[in-house]
């Protein structure tokens, strides 16, 4: 579980509360205290997720994208800030075990080559400790050129 706190910001137009990313795990279940979450659509436009009191937002993560061989995409999202009030979010992050090696399900690959390479949580940790994750997401490093 991650609890995120975004203080009110005097110049919200020149910063972000959280930069664009997709979550590493399989599923994220999120509760937000006010609007701020944005998701990227297929045309690369940012769409604000409406605030509905008490609603839980479910997002797919990178593990589902890889296991489904790209049939389901992980959600690229970011968080904006505002100048009037503090925002909180509670993210319940669901992931396969840390040592588990994850790869596209053969049933979904069919006769084609898999679109993603295999990875584990350790590979992900190595990547985020030595790379700029805003420039390139970890999942992009797993994509095969045939995808
Ligand atoms: O604050 C939010 O709405 C999103 C938080 C988030 O993306 C995360 O914890 O990974
Ligand atoms: Fe996230």
TrEMBL record:
Keywords: Iron, Metal-binding. This is Fe2OG dioxygenase domain-containing protein. One of its GO terms (molecular function) is metal ion binding. Residues 1-96 form the Fe2OG dioxygenase domain. The keyword Chloroplast does not apply. InterPro entries: IPNS-like_FE2OG_OXY (IPR044861), IPNS-like_sf (IPR027443), Oxoglu/Fe-dep_dioxygenase_dom (IPR005123), Plant_2OG-oxidoreductases (IPR050295). Pfam families: 2OG-FeII_Oxy. The keyword Metal-binding applies.
């Amino acid at each position: 579980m991650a609890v995120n706190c975004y203080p009110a910001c005097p110049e919200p137009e020149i910063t972000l509360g959280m930069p664009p990313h997709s979550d590493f795990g399989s599923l994220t279940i999120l509760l937000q205290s006010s609007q701020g979450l944005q998701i990227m659509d297929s045309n690369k436009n940012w769409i604000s997720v409406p605030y509905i009191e008490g609603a839980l937002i479910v997002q797919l993560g990178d593990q589902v994208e890889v296991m489904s061989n790209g049939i389901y995409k992980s959600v690229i999202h970011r968080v904006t800030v505002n100048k009037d009030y503090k925002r909180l979010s509670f993210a319940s992050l669901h992931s396969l075990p840390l040592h588990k090696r994850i790869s596209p399900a053969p049933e979904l690959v069919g006769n084609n080559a898999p679109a993603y390479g295999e990875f584990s949580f350790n590979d992900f940790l190595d990547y985020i400790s030595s790379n700029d994750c805003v420039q390139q997401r970890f999942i992009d490093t797993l994509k095969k050129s045939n995808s």
